Amino acid sequence: xxxxxxxxxxxxxxxxxxxxxxxxRVEYADLLYEKIVRIEIQQLPDRLLQKPFNIxxxxxxxxxxxxxKVEIKVGTLNPDSLKDAxxxxxxxxxxxxxxxxxxxxxxxxxxxxIRYGTAAPRLLPAGAxxxxxxxxxxxxxxxxxxxxxxxxxxxxxxxxxxxxEKAIADSTGVFKTQVxxxxxxxxxxxxxxxxxxxxxxxxRLGNPLPYSFIVRKTKNTYHLTPEAxxxxxxxxxxxxxxxxxxxxxxEEIKSLTHFVLHFTTLGVFVHEALGHxxxxxxxxxxxxxxxxxxxxxxxxxAAENVNILDGPLPGNPRxxxxxEFIDDEGVxxxxxxxxxxxxxxxxxxxxxxxxxxNAEPNGGAFSELGDQRIPRMSNTFVQPATRKNWFRTLxxxxxxxxxxxxxxxxxxxxxxxxxxxxxxxxxxxIENGRITRTVQPANFSAQTLHxxxxxxxxxxxxxxxxxxxxxxxxxxxxxxxxxxWTRIRNNEFVNLSIQG
Length: 500
Prior knowledge:
This is TldD/PmbA family protein. The protein is α+β, with helices and mostly antiparallel strands. The protein is built from 9 helices and 24 strands. The protein has 3 domains: 8-111, PmbA/TldD superfamily (PmbA/TldD fold, 2-Layer Sandwich); 126-162 and 173-244, Double Stranded RNA Binding Domain; 250-498, no CATH class. Helix 1 (8-23) packs parallel to helix 2 (79-95) and helix 3 runs parallel beside helix 4.
């Protein structure tokens, strides 16, 4: 059974009291209450920042009257503060002009169900966790220095683990809650080699799981989990590899026949190139590059062997850094089929855009601590449409590639209506079906409508544990991914430049 939020009865009573008052003034009202309890540590080059206890809470109020809408951020879940916010909202509604298209909200499906989520610890042993991270991460670096004489390895990291609670209530009597844990680790590794050459990578781990996902108690002490230690060691080793990496000039890049994207690169590629264009508020505003303002697709967005989805990974609902069970309007989060066989099939909705486009709400509305609840991606990923050309291993996927480039990892991306760009952390040259050399970091860009039309095959299972923080006026935890490896034929709509 899903856990209760802290002081659930009190929270419900305060929200219902405010909503009873709002019902006397407006046609519809709802409230979102969010609370986060977090521990956090950052090891930076010149200092160590530790936050052994941090708590934040906010409320968002929404009022509807005669087709008009107002949304207000409220500092605390306090009866007087909520009453004042409602009074302010009513005044704003009276001053607001009637919009050309009245605001409507699609109904909340399954309104009777109350509790969602998974167990999240109330107490977080910050001191012991912080000590283990500092000790174990730096120990891995020192071991690698001994294996690589002359290399100076400087790790920096950022870790947090938190308990998230939220409650949604409205003037029709809906009351829903969710409790979730969420844990994150980012590692930045800088290596200074012989002659002073500097190389750098960034690696992340994150999931809707307790801190034991990263740090686990063994006997009387805490240590990195084997999975976390392997991930950290692997990316430190890659940073050392980059010391001997080669570059490719424009002619050599032009001669490449294929790119093979690791899921950590593909995920950002899909998120930036296509994902935002599926968000229904962007579509409604006429800013989507793939769907017109009336909701009609502008064209094919991927090859026939590509499906694009957003939400929980089918069969594994607890994977993915952006996973939640209900959105911030109380709608159960569904796995949304955005494109099937390369053809656009759906959008990411909140209740307002669902009503506007005569669609079902699908759990896409999210807020950052009291901000507006707008359509947002959660975990956006590629799913092969068929088993054809979906191999078990990378070796089989690249066996017939005469000259290609593997791209792995990313330090972030940027998006526009027409395209995207992403910084890739490391590459590997493929020659006659074999990996031969390590390649310097690169910048990878593509046009939106053509980004995935040249996908030829895949290797490995679908993974959505690439970790991101998506900005859209507010920050949202997201996951990205796809099959471990995705093969794309080089084409005129993709551009690549390599450092060096």
